[in-house]
Amino acid sequence: MQSSGSSYSYERSFERLDELLDTTDTRYTQRQDLPSRDELTFSNGFYVRTTALFVDIRNSSGLPAKYSIPKLAKLYRAFISEVVAILDGNEYCEEINIVGDGVWGVFDAREKPQVDSALDAASEISSLIDVLNDKLMRRGYERIFAGIGLEWGRALMIKSGFYGSGINEVVYMGKVVNDAAKLSSLGEAETGILTRNPRVMAGNDFVGNLESDTYGSFFSFDARLGCYTASIHSKPMNAWRNSHI
Question: Is residue 131 exposed (0-12), middle (13-18) or buried (19+ Cβ within 10 Å)?
């Protein structure tokens, strides 16, 4: 959200606190679908069924010490640009957010094919990371590692921002969002010398809502981590990579 530069009045601010806190609880309703952004106001909200997908780079805090500012900017821009492109191209991904060097998407998740579609996006992102690494290493960068976290559940969907200013954004919050973020932090995390976790991590509810005979079969439960793990890729993207190595 871009700043409007308007001056701050603490008296008006304290009035807005009352206006926001005193909205009726009945304006927060449970929905099976993901409603349009246009249905949101500063006095309502929806509790929606969704899949959350998080992807972020491991140990990114150490990257500024390795690369010049231009090189770092190009790495981040390439990673974020094409992860966003994959999510934007998925018919069931309704919202995309960028947080630092991480990207996360919110998917409609009323039916199993919609949940399966989030796994399709994860497989494409996994293959994208492999291709990005090929291109980075040809340009003198080190390989990057990234985690992808997936979970299914309900999230609170609200409009948030500076009430009355036009500066606002749609925000999703709740356990499903937090769990997907935590799962992504486990993906490709170091487990020892030259060993790492698999890239894709998923929660019980996400795997339980996949088509079990196909998509669900990609995962195995890791009792050490307390979640499901997978090493998945997009077949056509992998075929392209293999023919261009």
Answer: middle
* pLDDT tens-digit map of 30-81: 877 787 888 877 778 888 889 999 999 998 888 999 999 999 999 999 999 9
Name the phi and psi angles at 77, rounded to 5: -65, -40
Report residue 50 CA to chain centroid gap: 12
Tens of pLDDT along 121-157? Answer: 999 999 999 999 999 999 999 999 999 999 999 998 8
Q: Which two tokens stand for residue 118?
A: 């989030």
Put simply, whether the predicted model's pTM sits higher than 0.85 gets the answer yes
Residue ranges of domains in the chain, CATH in brackets: 30-244 (3.30.70.1230)
Tokens of 116: 């399966």
Distance CA 144, CA 133 (A): 6
Two tokens, residue 170: 């749609």
With H, G, I as helix, E, B as strand and everything else as coil, classify residue 213.
coil
